[in-house]
């Protein structure tokens, strides 16, 4: 930023440059993380308000955790399903949904995909086209059988609670029910607090309807230590690496970029000459002021900034 330039001038200069490139772009990717759903009321994972601040990921989001205490893990995921179902998609989700529809339309020469690390289902509930939405970490609303012999998967199961025994655990996990807040905290949204919950037997948890031996169903999300679904990753790789021309623009929305392979996509797009636009509440100043080559940074709530930045292409949201 030049000494005479105010932050709002910088923002409008950046926005103008970005929008010129946006309108010229024929191939666009959005890489989405938890920050997109913050204004819908869902927590992120890292940072002072993040889920992993109060919850231990090793105890709740690994295959070992499920093996040791499936009742505990199911209560955590039942609570996350409940919270995601109560949340509504925001304008950021709707903006990407619009882009996805343009990316599919025969009248448009734009090709587009959203790669989301979010499992909250808000993108698909916002009307995003199925064909160009890649939920690489799975979905809270998919259920999979745990038996190696069985490939039962139940997609888009929105039943809540999934079993009678899981019914009251949602409220136990709800931070507003069981955490005393100090006066200071009442003003800010707080990260959820993990509280001791009841012990559940396997019989009280979701069971596979196909397996005769009552194998457990598990949440259809990718846990720490697990591989991402190969077919999906191959499709994303093909979109980025081949399938005609290189990607012109990657929108990096509300993600800390700490998890592979999501964090590799930006460099891969850049290597092939594509440009990057970051939408995040926390961005290095050099990026915000336009000092980093081929990268724009829009600092703030993605739900507000995305519709504004994409408006020349998608219209009013
Ligand atoms: N608008 C835009 N960005 C925001 C907002 C907001 N309103 N609020 C927070 N952010 C940003 C934060 O600054 C941070 O960079 O969102 C990012 C969230 O980062 P993480 O909590 O690390 O979430 P994410 O990047 O999605 O995590 C990736 O890690 O634990 C795993 O499986 C989990 O899918 C998740 C993956
Ligand atoms: Zn089964």
UniProtKB/TrEMBL annotation:
Domain notes: In contrast to class I sirtuins, class III sirtuins have only weak deacetylase activity. Difference in substrate specificity is probably due to a larger hydrophobic pocket with 2 residues (Tyr-77 and Arg-80) that bind to malonylated and succinylated substrates and define the specificity.
Cofactor note: Binds 1 zinc ion per subunit.
Cofactor list: Zn(2+)
Catalysed reactions listed for this entry: N(6)-glutaryl-L-lysyl-[protein] + NAD(+) + H2O = 2''-O-glutaryl-ADP-D-ribose + nicotinamide + L-lysyl-[protein]; N(6)-succinyl-L-lysyl-[protein] + NAD(+) + H2O = 2''-O-succinyl-ADP-D-ribose + nicotinamide + L-lysyl-[protein]; N(6)-malonyl-L-lysyl-[protein] + NAD(+) + H2O = 2''-O-malonyl-ADP-D-ribose + nicotinamide + L-lysyl-[protein]
GO function terms (MF aspect): histone deacetylase activity, NAD-dependent; NAD+ binding; protein-glutaryllysine deglutarylase activity; protein-malonyllysine demalonylase activity; protein-succinyllysine desuccinylase activity; zinc ion binding
Active site residues of this protein: 137
Its job: NAD-dependent lysine demalonylase, desuccinylase and deglutarylase that specifically removes malonyl, succinyl and glutaryl groups on target proteins. Has weak NAD-dependent protein deacetylase activity; however this activity may not be physiologically relevant in vivo.
Xref: CDD domains: SIRT5_Af1_CobB
Classification of source organism: Eukaryota, Fungi, Dikarya, Ascomycota, Saccharomycotina
Enzyme Commission number: 2.3.1.-
HAMAP family membership: Sirtuin_ClassIII
PROSITE patterns: SIRTUIN (PS50305)
Annotated Deacetylase sirtuin-type domain residues: 8-316
Binding site for Zn(2+): 145, 150, 208, 211
Name of the molecule in the record: NAD-dependent protein deacylase
InterPro entries the UniProt entry points to: DHS-like_NAD/FAD-binding_dom (IPR029035), NAD-dep_sirtuin_deacylases (IPR050134), Sirtuin (IPR003000), Sirtuin_cat_small_dom_sf (IPR026591), Sirtuin_class_III (IPR027546), Ssirtuin_cat_dom (IPR026590)
């Amino acid at each position: 930023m030049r000494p005479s330039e105010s932050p709002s001038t910088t923002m409008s200069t950046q926005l103008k440059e970005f929008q010129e490139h946006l309108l010229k772009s024929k191939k666009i990717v959005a890489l989405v993380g938890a920050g997109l759903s913050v204004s819908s009321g869902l927590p992120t994972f890292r940072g002072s308000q993040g889920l992993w601040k109060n919850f231990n990921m090793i105890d709740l989001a690994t295959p070992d955790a499920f093996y040791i205490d499936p009742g505990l893990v199911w209560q955590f995921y039942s609570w996350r399903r409940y919270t995601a179902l109560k949340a509504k998609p925001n304008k950021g989700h709707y903006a990407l949904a619009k882009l996805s529809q343009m990316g599919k339309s025969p009248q448009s020469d734009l090709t587009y995909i959203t790669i989301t690390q979010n499992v909250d289902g808000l993108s698909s509930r916002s009307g995003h086209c199925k064909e160009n939405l890649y939920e690489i970490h799975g979905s809270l609303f998919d259920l999979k059988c745990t038996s190696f012999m069985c490939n039962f998967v139940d997609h888009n199961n929105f039943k809540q609670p999934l079993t009678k025994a899981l019914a009251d655990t949602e409220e136990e996990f709800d931070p507003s029910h069981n955490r005393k807040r100090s006066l200071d905290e009442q003003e800010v949204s707080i990260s959820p607090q993990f509280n001791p919950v009841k012990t559940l037997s396997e019989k009280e948890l979701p069971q596979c309807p196909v397996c005769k031996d009552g194998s457990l169903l598990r949440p259809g999300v990718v846990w720490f230590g697990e591989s991402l679904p190969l077919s999906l990753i191959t499709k994303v790789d093909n979109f980025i690496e081949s399938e005609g021309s290189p990607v012109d623009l990657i929108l990096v929305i509300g993600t800390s970029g700490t998890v592979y392979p999501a964090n590799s996509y930006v460099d891969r797009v850049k290597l092939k000459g594509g440009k990057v636009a970051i939408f995040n509440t926390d961005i290095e100043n050099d990026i915000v002021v336009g000092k980093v080559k081929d990268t724009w940074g829009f600092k703030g709530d993605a739900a507000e900034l995305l519709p504004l930045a994409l408006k020349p292409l998608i219209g009013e949201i």
